[in-house]
Fold these 2 entries.
Entry 1:
Amino acid sequence: MKRSTAYLVYIYGLLVLGAAVLMVPFFFLVSGSLKTDQELSDLSKLMPEEPQWQNYGEALDMMGFWPALANTTVITTLCVVFQVISSSMIGYGFARYRFRGRNALFAIMLATMMLPAQVTMIPVFLLFRSLGWIDSFLPLVVPALFGSPFFVFMFRQFFLQVPEELLEAARIDGASAWMIYWRLMLPLSMPVIAIVAIYTFMFTWNDFMAPLIYLNSPDNRTLALALNSFSGQYGVEHRNLLLAASFVTMLPCIVLFFAAQKYFVDTGATAGLKG
Amino acid sequence: MTFGKVIRILLAAAAMLLVAWSFFDVGVRTLRSVTGSDRSAETLLTVLHWGTPEEEAIVQAMIDAFKTENPDIDVLRIHAGDYDAKLKTMLAAGTPPDLFYLKPEDVPEFAETGMAMKLDAFIAAERAAGTGAWVDDFYPVLMNAFRWDSGRQITGATGASYGLPKDFTTAVMYVNLDLFERAGVEVPYDGWTWDEYRAAMKKIAALSPEDKPGERIWGGVIKHWPDALRSLVWTFGGSFFGGESNGDFRDVQLDSPESLACLELIRELRFEDQSVFNASGLAESDDDLFRRGRIGCLGPYGRWFTPRARQITDFKWDVVPVPHAADAEPASIYFTVSWAVSAQTKHPEAARKLLKSLCAREGQVRTAELGLAMPSMKSVAESDVFLEPGRDPQHTRIFLDAVGYGRLAQYPRLKEFNHILDRELKDVLILDKDKITVADAAANVEKLWLNELASPLHSKQYDKMPWGKVLGVTGVFVALGVGLLVYISRREKLGSLSRAEERTGWLFISPWIIGFLAFVIGPIITALLLALSKWSAMAPLGEARYVGLDNFTHMFGYDANYAQSLWVTVYFTILIVPIGQVGALLVALLMNVEVKGIGLFRTTYFVPSVVTGVALVTLWIVMYNNEQGVINAMISATGLPAPDWFGKDGPIFAIPAIVIMSLWGVGGGMVIYLAGLKNIPASLYEAARIDGAGPVRQFFSVTLPMLSPLIFFQLVMAIIGSFQVFTQAYVITSSTGGENPNLLVYVLNLYRHAFQFHNMGYASALAWVLFLVLIVLTSLIFKSSKSWVHYEGLKG
């Protein structure tokens, strides 16, 4: 389809304007991370007089970056893989199988989301403690094996939309229920998988509460915990270092999104759906 | 190969390497700890503390020294960013840290519940053995801050000792010497009265350049968070409680002439003289203003500001005493924290040994060098290690002089007082000088505090929760529920394929069933039972008291914050749900156009949603700054009056400000809609075009119906999420200091009761009310969804 120049100018205008507005706080983040702490107290100075590149080295040193990075990567990778498989299975079951009690169970599952985590936190902690899992990654990773209502709901909404004829055809070809799920439905749901992966990644990468209560040893610290060590009893002592550390910590999220966006916008994966 | 492809391959390779390295690194460390090479010691002590990386290093150094001397004892140091939550969880689980930081205001609760060990025998033994010099080196008054007299219910010398002061600071004023000199005000190193202060502030404020309102100079800043305000009230000869001497916390003395004079002076300095900067809301940080040379006198403030002040290069600064009323003595509060030992420790002997090491002189010296606090040992504080001759502030001595006239604060066991105080004084001290008089505000504090004390939760005695009986009854209810579920399900009719299909369906959802039975149902039922109990979450569950429905009585009759928190949350939901969803959908539509470079734009729009936590708030404090912030600059440019977001205009603007912050993260929701849009077959649009539908028509008759399952999903999630909003409100409130009733969302109120006020039972009751509200709302949406959600697959 050929687009007029006016249309393109309009679209790019909108895109650039929106991007500019969204980038303003981000600009302050990056410029702040290169300032001295004293310079940060004057907001009218947009740029640092002399970029303080050593802020990055100091920040990473101070927060104990490398072990925290390894811990966070391990926890996040496991959570993403577990979450995608478990949630898609459960969502598929709820969407495409009729069994007695299905609606009631689905309602119960959604309801479990509505109780604020702050009050179940201590009982859940008691449970994991009785399993002897404190100060290990297990309490952070194992729950991902059982799906999360949010993602199950998302997969269910997606699988509900898949035309019945597609499944029927596969069944006639003699595919088993597992094969249909694994070979047909899962690849079809690539856009949802990409979203669930990104959401899980971002959530786990940035999660503060669960690591806070389950991890004890300084060696087991995640990045979110390490970031929090910049705020002491009397507020944040080194705002410039905090901003530098935050920037480094969020880089993987940005890179991941950049790489993954192709999947949930890729119509190729879902082409078969509407054939 | 295109450039983009190369980048993607490189990124993928980097990601693989990162994952591989991480698993290897963690694997090696795990192996090492399993084989036990660093867990050879028999006795393991845990130490819980908070602090900046530098403070962590000090604690670690003390522990390392201890371990070298005691190779048979291993120490696990735990640093907690959210100390209250971490400590509570450990206490509730019956695994308290052996040593931990204890704040003076928590001493009554820890002493009364028997969670902290009495240290008197240990101290006596040290003295008897002739090694007690170190204990006697602590300022006696600081020791007293951690003594609790259970009989008289007061803190002080007559009580048992529950903690040893790790460090402390008195209150002083930081002054800009250049401004004092320019204004011709003598620097009051030997003390000054409030009248002299007031005159000085006027002279300094008069230095403001008239032609540049943006560079206004303020005489001073008066800090007035509850402990600072208490210190100020003392300098007028007033006090918070009659109970400062007799333990009667019903006798609120805020309405005495002396206390009122203090409040009135702060009000007049701000609103009548306009010589003192009023840091309302997320306004300009007054600390930063001082550092930029725009404030004459900042305080009352502690030693902790010194490292930041030392970075000032543009002017000379120093410290002076806090002023006092002409007819009253100078006074200062002690800001302090102690090391305490758990009463449940399995190794009391080792724990006390470690306590001694943590308090060692070496740590005191390093604390002094760091500059964040004053050493609590007299011999270190009164030496050059702390006084640092030649280094700013030149009159460090004044911190020590204040020890001479310092006073201990009495804290009631119920921690709600400070919050009531802060909230009720906000109107008169910061926001609206005409709305209420100082005397009325003080009377309101007393009224609400007495109401809080009158709640059955705080005034009645309850029996222990009969867990056996309660669990039995719960079991019966659960069985009945399951029975009902089975009965209803059995009545559903299934088709011919059903048996096999049913079994496969169950198999697919089995992960959830297992997880639910193993990890979800138990905690949920526990939370329900806790709603009927009074439990501090400091002792194990067995200590909970059964209160029947009194938590709900408290909620609707005595919780001063309940109605406000409900309103703030509803206000947030009403704004964020429609605005957030429409915004995400619009951005997704924009991101859906296929033009060159769109991938980069998508990433750009998504990036803001990955900024979280403290960094997010640090950024937005910059953005919302009244004076220099970008947002208000833009609003002013349009000619509209710029709001004071979290201050004066807070009742209306605080929540919208959070909504704007959330909209910045619109990329998160955009992603879901974008995937949905990409999933709409092009053939539908083609058909619509052939039928002559324009872009608008196409949107309403193709896009919206096809997206309806997603919109439905997003709507349900958005409502659940918005009622549970917590992080932004929590971080902004805690980083601006003090109460902000306009940000007191439901879960923030709940969080405070659970982790700060020692009311886990009440917090559970709050949670269950929220739970019921959400159930009703969600089922309404589900009911309505049948008429507007379009499922293609099921209609086929």
Note: Chain A touches chain B through 139 residues (CB under 8 Å).
Entry 2:
Amino acid sequence: MTFSDDRPTMIEFKDVHKYYGDYHALRGINGTIKAGEFFSLLGPSGCGKTTLLRTIAGFEDISSGVVMIDGKDAAGMPANVRPTNMVFQSYAIFPHMSVAENVGFGLRKDPRSKEEKAKAVAEALEMVGLKGYGNRAAHALSGGQRQRVALARALILKPKVLLLDEPLSALDKKMREHMQVELIKLQRQVGITFILVTHDQEEALVMSDRIAVMFEGEIAQLADPETLYRRPATRKVADFIGTMNFIPAEILSEAGDKVEVDAKGLGRVALDISQAPAKTGETPVVGLRPETLTLLYDDQKPTERETDGVIDEVIYFGDMTYYDVYLGGTDVEVRLSMRNVPGRPVLDVGTKVRVAWSPSALVLFR
Amino acid sequence: MAQTPSSEARAGLKLISPTAIYVILLLAVPLATVLLYSVLTGGRGTVGLPLTGENYAELWSKPVYGYIMLKSLLVALTVTAITVLLAYPVAYFVSFHVKPERKSLWLFLITIPFWTSYIIRVSLWFVILGYGGVLDSTLASIGLPPLNVASYSILSIIIVLAHAYAPFAVLPIFVSLEKVDRSLLEAGQDLGESRWVTFLRVTLPLSMPGVIAATLIVFIPTVGDYVTPELVGDGKEPMIANLIETQLLKLRNFAQGSAFAVASMLMVGVVSLIFVLLNRRFIGGQK
């Protein structure tokens, strides 16, 4: 799952700052995006992810720092000469042109003959699944089709980097899931760097090789999806990506590569130092994902540790059931998820249960 | 609560009936009268039977009438071209470079000329363009010969009309520019075009409906403008409206005047139709 580090760098940010008047939109962005990578900028609205994308495209000047694109400093390089192309959130399809004219918009200066260009347009349309749509009026397209036109229009120019500004947010759920898979396939097919801006953590996890999680103009964590999910660097990242239970904990000792904590309702646990990301000065808590907790049925034996609990809430999802459980006679409530398989009845509120968990699934935030 | 479409239609008819009656009485009836008069036999202050095509024949027979009509058409087209060409940058500036909260102030300022009576504005142009006026005395002060623009009637008519109709042209162009999605311009640049080429390939075509609306709004009234040639040109350069006025009010030949009026309407109609068809081409490509 991890992205190979030996790939050449495509984009590099060096201490990038951006001010809008007094507003500090980007606060020292550092990081690299590799060639051929599917990279996501993930964060809540107003975190600066779109601003960062627009600095790559050349629509925003940065206040200080350096943005390098393919080894060249992008400062003073206007949008029209950058080796990047963008799929806009609104798709920005030219309403006065046909589908083919839209897709061929960027080919004006292309030295190829008219016939060759028309062929290239047809191929681009075929690649995005719109074969034969060339003569349609752009305004007669559905949302999903517009997005495909926007993709074809950008990809036909063979950019080094394709920028996608929340391209799926306007689509309905089914279409969105479908397009997620299509985009991944397309990226593998063309092999160029894709940079996706999204506020949807699930979308970022599904699609990306690596993800930069942004809050308030800063990158909180830059990692591959699995690391991000299993070893979030801060409590805020953990909270933003998926669901995580936070359990108050006390740090008993820290020696070598072991940290011993006393987590309320779970008891004493010895953690590996890799489970404790750098200190941020927060009150210590341990985090546990719902799926790492398991209800034990009848005489099932726990694989590692076991804690008593009482069910406080049952949320039935069809394939899954979520239980909110008070742990070990305390007021600490955790959410856990159980797959509904035969022989595993949905339990009632108030049932006393045994909860199995694994110390290796814990993350300590302090 | 739900109304049937027919009762809704009836309610709608009731609502528009005062306006409809007003329009029929003040527009359709006079128009029909003019059409009818134009084919009647005219005398001094009278019209009567039999029906005749003589009024139109008169129009064809004397080249001076054709000359005046052609001149009106050319003056109106020149005025329209100048007005729209000058209005476009103003509208573009207000739409693209004025902060959103300042736009209404700018539009308000653009309409300021309307606060003054047209006659006064025309008189003020004399002060600027006329013999010994502001323009010529400025030129004299830097050692240049006077232009005496006011003595060239057609040129003065064009200048005065172009100024008078400028706000009418700015507003529709402004509205069409406001509707241009700004991300389209970024897309144009993103796809490799400079700002200028993006303007030519995206902004300009998308604002064409506004340009054509402005063209019609300026062209139609300027063809039939009566006051400006009368005041600015001292009546030396009559336009079609002055011709109609002479026939109807001075010679009191209602039939002949009506024929001129119908001919002028046809001319405006044909030119407008061309613009409307052009407009449809541009609107046809859009939502």
Note: Chain B has a mean pLDDT of 83.
